[in-house]
Every structure is written in C-alpha cells, then in structure tokens.
Amino acid sequence: MSSSRRWSPRLKAAVIMEKPNKDKPSIGFSFGIPVPAPSAKPAIGMLTDSKDSYSIVTGVSSTERRVKDHLYTFPAPRPNLECQWRDMEWTEEQRTSLMKTISSYRPSSAEVTRAQVLLLGPVGSGKSSFISSVQSVFNGRVTNRAMVGSSSTSFTKKSFNIHGQNGEDPTGLILCDMVGLGGGEMIGPTLHDILSIIKGHVPEGHKFSPDQPVRSETVGYVKRPSLKDKIHCVAFVVDASKILTYPKDLSTTFQQLREHISDLGVHQVALLTHIDQICSETDKDTTQVYKSRAIRDMMGKAGALLGMSSSYIVPLKNYSSELDLDVNTDVLLLSAVDHILQYADLHFQDHASLHTGPKID
Known about the structure:
By secondary structure, this protein is of the alpha/beta class. Helices cover about 25% and strands about 15% of the residues. The chain has helices spanning about 90-105, 125-140, 190-200, 250-265, 280-285, 295-305, 325-355; strands at about 60-65, 70-75, 115-120, 155, 160-165, 170-175, 205-210, 235-240, 265-275, 315. α2 (about 125-140) packs across α7 (about 325-355). The longest helix is centred in the C-terminal third of the chain and has 28 residues, at about 325-355. The two termini are about 30 Å apart. The relative contact order is 0.20. The model is unreliable at about 1-20 and about 25-75 (pLDDT under 50).
C-alpha cells in the first residue's frame, strides 16, 4: 500500500480466542433474525407518512406503496445539493488510477498473498452482483458470475479471485460470498458458522447445513488456522431501497454480529447498494451520488441499522441490466474496493503489532 494513503480510524482489535464466551451466547440466525432480549429496541422501524420518509419510486409527485399489507406514502425527492458531500473525481484517469492501485495491491503481511474479504448481508442485497460488477470492470465488459446457492437446506461459501485487467494475474484480493442472512422461508447461516469462517476453520467448498454446525470433527476442518486461512475484513451489504422495510429485528442481528466480529479483531465496512433505485438523478447520472440528499440521508439510516458510523459506509451501483460499462459506475465500484482494501490492510498491521513485542535490551 502506498505510504501516502490516508487511513480511517481503527476499530477495536482483540486477540482471537477459541474458547466460547459465556457472556455472549450463540445466536441462531434462522431467517436472518435472532430472538432479541425483551429490552432490545430496534434501531429502525417502518416509517409511515412523515418528514423522515423517502421516495422509493421516484419521478412522481407522491407515490403510495404497499409493504407487508400496510400502505405507506413516500414524498417526492428533494433537489440535489450543489456540492458533493464526499470528494470524488469522475474521470477516465481516476478509473485507471484506481484499477492500477487495486491490481498492484499486496497485503502488508509476509504471511499472506491475498486479503480475504467476506460479504455478509440479507438475501438479495447485492453481494453476488457486487463481485460480478467488480470483475466486469477488470474484464472490460459486463459479465455475470453464477449466483451463490440459495437452498433452504444447505449452502456453501464461495471465494472469487479478482483478476487484473484483461484476465491478468489475480490481484491481492479475494471476495468471499455466501447465502444471505435470511428471508422468506430460507434458513440463513448461524452465528457459529459465520464466526468459524472468519476464524479460518472452514475449508473451501464446505456445505453448510442448519442441523450440522461446523465442528472439529467436520471433514477438512482447519484446527490451527494461519493468518492466510482467516477472513481479514468483513463487508456488510445492504439494499438502499429496502432499508426502511427491513424486518425490525435485523438491526439487532447486525449489531450483535458486529460485536462478535470486532472481538476477533476484524475490521468492518459496509456497502449500500441499489442507490439508483432511491434517487432518479443518480439513476440517470452516477456522478450525482454524492450530491443526492436522499442517498446521504439513507447512509445515516444504514448506519443506524448496522450500528456503525456512516464514514465506514460507501454507496454503490452494481451492473444489472446494462450491456456496456460506464466510466462513472466503474469509479464508484473501484472506490468501494479501495475502501475495503484499506481496512483489510489495517488488519495485517494490527496482527503485526500484536505479534511484535517491544525489544528487550
């Protein structure tokens, strides 16, 4: 990483402990929603017609939308700001610079050759689409990867090497995808299995099953994972168009999950997808993303949902129905990858400091 890179504040780092914490009982994530304590209060709920509601369907003066048998009214979008609330250069040169930075990235630890990033989020949040979109940028054309299986009985974790431009050697980044945290009749991963992946115990291609948690007897189980086996950063993925209608208890799920991950010393960021669905101006012109009031405000809602500052969250637009690449969409996607790599490298720096004690004369 370049010494001139500006690093964001560190999250809490902790030595990874294999013994379970009795004060933090394991939480089942069936349907992606744990059973909260009676005193737990969701950070967000469904909003009715109020000043805090936002337009999900834009382009009309007032839109009524039925969600879960309730009628909500979303007012017309407000005009965009004159200046960007985050600095961003929308040029071909910026895209080239970001691609070069990502292609040349190598972890700062000699123990690993690639940073492994785990994507976590609800069903349909855009995890697989993000992986496909990033690889599309480097391929020079829009391509779609096979989606991670969404079976209600079993699922696997899949790792994708992000290759350099035109299929060159892999970059120093691996994006790991798995089934969503739940929704409908699907059974999402348990907290135990998610933490087992992050700790590096789970072999590639392992098929998870709700009635067969990962154990030391599991075939291929890595009993003593090295740094290269572990997850080095977790990126939560949430859908901007669904923030206001996610189940109330999902906030509790996210925040309890984040607490356990932080205890492992793993840094976390978040991706806010489908921003083009909440801002018609950004849908037409991606460069409007950091001038959009609706997106800026939804970043705050996402932060409340996840229990993290909006400084850790980046908005993005995945490729979906497009056939051709767009330089501005590429810049936004590549900026998200660069953001992730900063926090992955902080993990390697933390690991080095934990294992390098002061010299004794």
